[in-house]
Amino acid sequence: MTAEDLYGLLVPLLDERLLVPRACVAEVTGMQALQEMPGAPPWYLGITPWNGRSIPVVSFEGVCGQRIPALSGRTRIVVFSCLGQKLPAGNFGIVTQGFPQLVRVSSTVIVPDNSRIFGERVPVLCQVRMINELPLVPDIERLEEMIADETTVTA
After folding, report:
1. Is residue 133 part of a domain?
2. Spatial separation of the C-alpha atoms in residues 93 and 51, rounded to whole Å
3. How many of the other CB atoms lie within 10 Å of CB of 74?
4. 131 assigned to some structural domain
5. 128: β partners
6. Which of 16, 143, 145, 150 has the greatest count of CB atoms below 10 A from its CB?
7. How many CA atoms lie within 13 A of 4 on its CB side?
8. 102, exposed or middle or buried, with CB in 10 Å at 0-12, 13-18, 19+?
9. Angle (nearest 5°) at CA 70 between 61 and 99
10. Are strands 17-21 and 91-96 parallel, antiparallel or unpaired?
11. Along the 155 residues of the chain, how does pLDDT read in single tens digits?
């Protein structure tokens, strides 16, 4: 490993994967019953207890305007550490379709892929080509803002 290498996680969604820095993920936990957030959009799945706090849980697919996947035995919650101060709990969860995969990322294995354009309101920074994968790099700060705009409870 060189100084330019980083560790990331490939987070499985329904039809795609997210590539996120390992340092942004606090924990991967099993799916639990969610407390509904009244008045929230469908992608805001609810609130779950985690580490003594109540954290919001969302569907990334839903945030992007796609079909929200059904929950199954493979469903997990990837708990992210917030980059900003907008969410009182300091964390939020994204529902995934299985366990994330740890990957080493460097400039030799990852290149930008501009084959798709994402709307201004979609929390995606870009898509990248990584060997045989085309993962999305989420805009974590934008996603936090979107969640904060819909959250009415405090930690």
Report:
1. no
2. 12
3. 11
4. no
5. 112
6. 143
7. 5
8. exposed
9. 70
10. unpaired
11. 555 778 999 999 999 999 999 999 999 999 988 999 888 999 999 999 999 999 999 999 999 999 999 988 899 999 999 988 888 889 999 999 999 999 998 888 888 899 888 888 899 999 999 988 999 999 999 999 999 998 765 44
| 26 in any annotated domain | yes
CATH of the domain at 71: 2.40.50.180
What radius of gyration, in Å, describes the C-alpha atoms of the chain?
Answer: 15
Task: Provide the whole-model pTM.
Answer: 0.91
Q: What is the predicted pLDDT for the residue at 152?
A: 67
Counting the structural domains of the chain, the total is: 1
What single-letter amino acid sits at 38? P
